[in-house]
Amino acid sequence: MVFTTDFSFVKYEPLKFSEVFLYMKALDSVNFIWCMILCLGAAAKPPPLNKESKNIADRNSRF
After folding, report:
1. Residue 34 lies in a domain
2. What is the model's pTM?
3. How far, in Å, CA of 31 to CA of 4, rounded?
4. Residue 46: domain span
5. Per-residue pLDDT tens for 16-37?
6. Which of 32, 45, 50, 63 could bridge to 27 as Cys pair (CB 3.0-4.6 Å)?
7. How many of the other CB atoms lie within 10 Å of CB of 21?
8. How many domains does the chain have?
9. Domain assignment of residue 50, yes or no
10. pLDDT of residue 53
11. What is the C-alpha to C-alpha distance for residues 63 and 55, in angstroms, rounded to an integer?
12. 25/2 Cα distance (integer angstroms)
């Protein structure tokens, strides 16, 4: 799986702009950025890149 910046496959409820502005006012900009990074990371976890997944990908590419 190639990692892309397109998060359209992530199923989530879109926030209203007023809620986003409230969060930005309540939190520091750094904390808000870290929260968004953690939320995106929790919502879209890429598969772990270990030897097993690479072997499975190699096996699948042979067929």
Report:
1. yes
2. 0.25
3. 24
4. 17-61
5. 666 767 666 765 666 767 777 7
6. 32
7. 11
8. 1
9. yes
10. 60
11. 13
12. 35
pLDDT band at 60 (very low <50, low <70, confident <90, very high): low
**Which residue carries 């096996």 as its tokens?**
59
Q: What is the pLDDT of residue 9?
A: 52
d(CA 41, CA 45): 6
In a domain, 12, yes or no: no
Annotate the chain with three-state secondary structure.
CCCCCCCCCCCCCCCCHHHHHHHHHHCCHHHHHHHHHHHHHHHCCCCCCCHHHHHHHHHHHHC
Query: Is residue 44 included in any domain, yes or no?
Result: yes
Amino acid at 2: V
Tokens of 13: 């409820």
Tokens encoding 56: 């499975």
